[in-house]
Amino acid sequence: MDVTDFLLLLSVFFKLAMQTTSAKEEDSGCVDGMSCMSLAECSAQLRSWQQNESDILFRCNYGKQKVCCPLSPRTREKSNMDLLPNEKCGLTSASKISSGHNATFGQFPWMALLGSRLSNGGLRFICGGTLISDQYILTAAHCLHIVNATLEIIRLGEHNLDTVEDCEDYCSDPVQDYQVEMAVSHKEFDIHNLKNDIALIRLHTKVPQYTDYIRPICLPFGINITGEEETKYQIAGWGKTDFYEPKGSAVLQFATVNSVPLEDCNSRQAAEVRPLGDTQLCAAGNSGEDACKGDSGGPLMDVVQLPTRRTAQIFQVGLVSFGSIPCGAQTTPSVYTRVS
């Protein structure tokens, strides 16, 4: 499958997400070929067809615990959904997540660094991204449009940029660098107002196997997000910990941020980026903790327990698009491109 096909897949879950609802008593619509029914009924139906529960995409009635279930056995040998590691994504080896600290080894194993070749010949990691399958990276489109910089490599498994080996009480696996085969921005990306600020990068070779330090994040099938919920999210990246510092952090950082309603957020943004749209989300941190320069393309994350999964997983609901100046200003929330 080429990058164009994968962008089509992304458009599919934009449509799926728009069909979910927060209604407690009424069933929301399911896409063609699927019907809203109880989880137990759907599971029994899939077992009778000798198919697994990964075919269940999302809930259609939260109050009655109903899910969208296929109406007939799947006849295709492989669907686009099969390309996403639904059962293996969003798992972390870290036992605890709190805000305002250095990340631990393997806490965010999907984090990627975008390495760009500068006009002076040097290689610099300017933006972040996330591994979403064994060959694709999700990032911000503006990270592909940096003046005098050409995207060249993707680094996975990094923790501390200043060390060759990442060691504390134990050492993590060596980093892995992958050549970029192709990078495509959203066809309606606007560099001036940063609308549709999302892009896909195809690695030249596939990640051979997932480890505690390199593993994909989940994409938000089954998560209903309107941008109005009062939710705490996590962000991570190697961006500046202080706006006035000359460069970003060497060690992967993370923090907790709070969702901000889109209407409220819109009124606090510069005229150049208004109005914000339903493809964007807003969040702001406490005590100045927020996305900053160098965090662009990194994930806005939520921990979710889906009805068909045994354990909670981490889902990427957004990616860092742009923030306030200076970073973490309480008056201006950061803006994220909505992935859900």
What does this structure look like?
- The chain is mainly beta and 340 residues long.
- It has 3 domains: 50 residues, no CATH class; 93 residues, Thrombin, subunit H (Beta Barrel), CATH 2.40.10.10; 108 residues, Thrombin, subunit H, CATH 2.40.10.
- The protein is built from 3 helices and 16 strands.
- The longest helix has 16 residues.
- The radius of gyration is 20 Å and the shape is globular.
- The chain starts with a helix and ends with a strand.
- About 6% of the residues have low confidence.
- Keywords: Disulfide bond, Glycoprotein, Hydrolase, Protease, Serine protease, Signal.
Q: State the fourth-level CATH superfamily of the largest domain.
A: Trypsin-like serine proteases
Distance between the termini: 22 Å
Low-pLDDT segments = 12-25, 95-99
Which quaternary structure do these chains form? single chain
The average pLDDT is 79
**What is the CA-atom radius of gyration, in angstroms?**
20 Å
Overall body shape: globular
CATH architecture of the largest domain: Beta Barrel
| SS-derived structural category | mainly beta
Fraction in beta strands: 25-35%
Helix content: under 10%
Write down the domain tally. Answer: 3
Which terms would index this structure?
mainly beta; Thrombin, subunit H; 3 domains; 3 helices; globular; 340 residues; six-stranded antiparallel β-barrel
Topology:
Blueprint: H1 3-18, E1 34-38, H2 39-48, E2 59-61, E3 66-70, E4 101-102, E5 111-118, E6 123-131, E7 136-139, E8 149-156, E9 176-185, E10 199-203, E11 232-237, E12 253-259, H3 262-267, E13 280-285, E14 299-304, E15 313-322, E16 334-338
Antiparallel strand pairs: 1-3, 2-3, 4-12, 5-6, 5-8, 6-7, 7-10, 8-9, 9-10, 11-12, 11-14, 12-13, 13-16, 14-15, 15-16
